[in-house]
Amino acid sequence: MPVPPIVAFNHVVKRYGDGPVVIDGIDLTAAPGDFISLIGPSGCGKSTLLRLIAGLSPLTGGSLTVDGRTPEDAAAELAFVFQEPTLLPWLTVAHNIEVAQQLRGVSAADRATARRRAVELVRLHGRDSAYPRQLSGGQKMRVSLARALTLEPKILLLDEPFGALDEMTREHLNEELLDIREKQAWTAFFVTHSVAEAVFLSNRIIVMSANPGRIHREVRVDFPYPRTEATRLSRPYHDLVAEVSGLLRSVENT
Amino acid sequence: MRRPFLNILLPLGTGLLMVACWYAVRHALSEDLKFLLPTPDEIWAALQANSESLSRATLNTSKGAVLGFVLAVVVSFGLALILSLSHLIRASLYPYLMILQMMPIIVIAPILVLWVGAGLNSVVIITFLICFFPLVVNTTQGLISTDRNLVELFRMYRATRWQETFWLRVPAALPYFFTGLRIAAVLAPIGALVGDYTAGSSAGDGGGLGFQAIIYSSQAKYSALFATAAVTCILGFVFAGAVNILSWLALSKWHDSYHRTDN
Ligand SMILES: Nc1ncnc2c1ncn2[C@@H]1O[C@H](COP(=O)(O)OP(=O)(O)O)[C@@H](O)[C@H]1O
Ligand SMILES: [Mg+2]
Q1: Residue A96 lies in a domain
Q2: Contacts of A88 in chain B (CB under 8 A)
Q3: Mean pLDDT over each residue of chain A, to the nearest integer
Q4: Tell me, what DSSP letter sits at residue A213?
Q5: What is the pLDDT of residues B180-236, one digit of tens each?
Q6: Could you list the residue range(s) of the whole structural domain that residue A236 is in?
């Protein structure tokens, strides 16, 4: 028996107000556990797609179900990570990690338990009482990720989360993200500009084209998990990066 | 370690230089004009001679300053919360806030005396009026300058309006609030003094420093007048110092303004 999709876009159209059509005729279903990367020229509607899943903006046409419900009703199943760490500078790391749960009214004891588990997952020990200004870019991102993980979401939406980090840190966090995925089974929608990152992380890559935003091509990535540094050195990995880069170039030139 | 050392030494040096100039000017004045500029030691002597009336006046002025200041903080914070709700509210209220700030105290004072009587009530209201504007403007600016990304985060997690205001906008506005508070803290003693000068009363508690200044000048006690000015300055320093301590307590752990980035 096939598993019901966790997210299902059905001919989804979106425009903001009476502006132009931002995304047009999106058909996309995600199975639980999928790691889907969205890649495409800037302005093609990647962030908009995430906003629709989050129920933050109404559809203009088509239908969208999240966890079998409307996006609004499924909001409690989601967590987000943005490009900016979006930490509250006046709160310590511990409080920052707990803030998402706090907004959802989780009790202090449960928050602390979930926080310790999340700190474990992102490997950020001994910084609980530090303030954001005392952290490096990579550490801030870890806090941001930990904050999302405390919610133990069914769906994790990541909008260029590592885009502002240096290559080394980004690769580390990519590996850790996959590690975490082994322990916390969420479905990921991951927006990125880095083809290498998309290939390394995902089992599915959606290449989008702009004006209006459409799905240009879907590429499956069949390398087995867990993926490691060795994956990055393998021949099929390089071939796939080249293939997706080619696709991306073709949509960017139109 | 060089910097704290210089931070003390430099102002001390400037102070000594100014006192030296002071004595020099006084020395240069002809005998019949010397009363125009009492020396620091004469002022010190006048301070001691008038200590009883000056300390009572200082206490009264401090009372007026503190009450007016606290009232201004509370009311401005409430109003800033309302102003931060929408730019339509700001547009409709800002001109009148400006008018409030433009109104000359000299003209307000007799009206206040008429309404609430001379003395502490009037002094508190005048202090309030003087402190109010910088507080409300800065706090409002802070409340509407919240990082867009943080607001987005709160909206994504379906924060209530209350949570967005008190967990996000208010703490984010603290640095702005303290900018307003610093300005208001310097203005408060001056406001109380001016209030006392223009709407003070010797009835009951004997009046404040402004009232004392009127008495000393009518008695041609110029050294005592200078002593009154000195006491007012000290009061200002106490206010500014207290606000600096509060600001340090609230911001030093997390705000960049307390952390030098240049080396
Ligand atoms: N809140 C909004 N209101 C109006 N237009 C928007 C809004 N958000 C995004 N857009 C427009 O929608 C298009 C797609 O934006 P976005 O989803 O952010 O693209 P991407 O993330 O792929 O760069 C852009 O043209 C952008 O200007
Ligand atoms: Mg985007």
Answers
A1: no
A2: 150, 167-168, 171-172
A3: 95
A4: B
A5: 999 999 999 999 999 999 988 877 677 899 999 999 999 999 999 999 999 999 999
A6: 7-86+155-252
Q: What spacing in Å lies between the alpha carbon of A228 and ligand 2's midpoint?
A: 28
Boundaries of domain holding B199: 46-257
Helix ranges (DSSP H) in chain B: 2-28, 40-49, 51-83, 87-102, 105-116, 120-144, 148-156, 161-163, 170-199, 209-218, 222-251
Interchain contact B167–A (C-beta under 8 A)? yes
CATH of the domain at B53: 1.10.3720.10
Q: Using the Cα atoms of residue A100, residue A106, residue A108 and residue A109 in order, give the sign of their dihedral.
A: negative
Atom of ligand 1 nearest to the CA of A57: 1
Share of chain A above pLDDT 90, in %: 94
What is the average per-residue pLDDT within A148-154?
96
Cis peptide before A226 (omega within 30 of 0): yes
- Ligand 1 atom at minimum distance from A159 CA: 21
User: Which CATH number does the domain housing residue A57 bear?
Assistant: 3.40.50.300
Q: Give the count of domains, chain A.
A: 1
Per the structure, the count of domains in chain B is: 1
Tell me which of A14, A18, A48 to substitute to probe ligand 1's pocket, judged by most ligand atoms within 8 Å of the beta carbon. A48
Residue B148 domain flag: yes
The tokens describing B229, both together, are: 């000015």
Q: Is residue A136 part of a domain?
A: no
pTM for this entry: 0.89
Does A253 sit in the ligand 1 pocket, CB within 6 Å?
A: no
ipTM: 0.90
Helix (H) / strand (E) element for A243: namely helix A235-252
Whether A171 maps to a domain, the answer reads yes
Position A222 in a domain: yes
B253 chain-A contacts, CB cut-off 8 A: 90, 131
How far is the first Cα of chain B from the last one, in angstroms, to the nearest whole number?
13
